[in-house]
Write a structure and sequence with these properties.
It is a single chain. The protein is an alpha/beta fold. Among the domains are: about 180 residues, Glycosidases (TIM Barrel, Alpha-Beta Barrel); about 35 residues, no CATH class. Helices cover about 30% and strands about 20% of the residues. It has a five-stranded parallel sheet with strand order 1-2-3-6-7. Strand 8 and strand 9 form a beta hairpin. The chain is globular and about 65 Å long. The N and C termini lie far apart (about 45 Å).
Amino acid sequence: DGLRLDAVHELRDDSGRHYLAELADTVAGWSEAVGRPLTLIAESDRNQPATVSPTFADGLGMDMQWADDVHHGVHAWITGERAGYYGDFGSAEALATVLERVFLHAGTFSTFRGRSWGAPVDLASPHYDGHSFVTFLQNHDQVGNRAAGDRIHAGLEPGRHAAAIALILLGPGTPMLFQGEEWAASSAFAFFTDHDGELGELVSTGRAREFAAMGWDQTVPDPQARSTFESSLLCWEERGQGAHARMLQWYRTLIGLRREQADLRDPNLQRTSLEVLAEETVLLHRGGLAVLAHRGPGPTADGPHAAEVLAAFGDLEQTADGALALRGPGAAVLRPALDS
């Protein structure tokens, strides 16, 4: 059993013992009584490892927390978006930070917030590890809060989508998928509501005003319109068609590799590192395996040498001496050659 707690950073508790810590200890007692794991997952914007530290170590006792910085780092690097809270992200250096250390803002300055934010993750902590942080390429907020509810893959070549999700699914976090992303669903996921009377009107006008203030010059779907809801429904028949089926198979391949290869599900953050081969090409090291991710455009430059290629998406070539090259956006999972 698991319970996700929404926006815990908005909880205001100045009592001697924080509500979340009290909840964590109570749930731990229930878990022991029923003899099965009961998991608490926090959505938190605070970038505080204390959220997933046990209460006996002065933490809040959550089993996991969402890692928005990992999302922002991957999203901004693969798409090139820099507006709003993506402002400090987008470089390969920032990508390396979030995949290795979870938080970019870890007691450092956040341009979006205008102040220092967060605290660093202890890579050797006995209280939490990579699996304590939920990582994702999409979720209901990151899609639904966009003006048109467009999914990340709507504006990406399939190879870029494939590269981005390889970094998430084979990284040290606990991956989370959002409905339909695994087959690159064509339907958007717009913000929709079903409020009566004045409240519904306020939501509709407020939504339009919010994005107009951001300079959005296209029509924002009316949250109250039934058509907005219906346009967000998944087209399940797509899963077996063309590019959708190919992407679904890639997701299945990556999940299968994570299950089969212990290095790819290892939560030890100290055994994860990201090598920047070029601003558009990175190599994620996971123990004895690695993930080559290339956003393009054009081919990779100096690719790694591989003893074995476990999976690939995109136009991959391997020279006689084992060096890998992607001719465009894509990804490969490999066992590096010992002398590489």
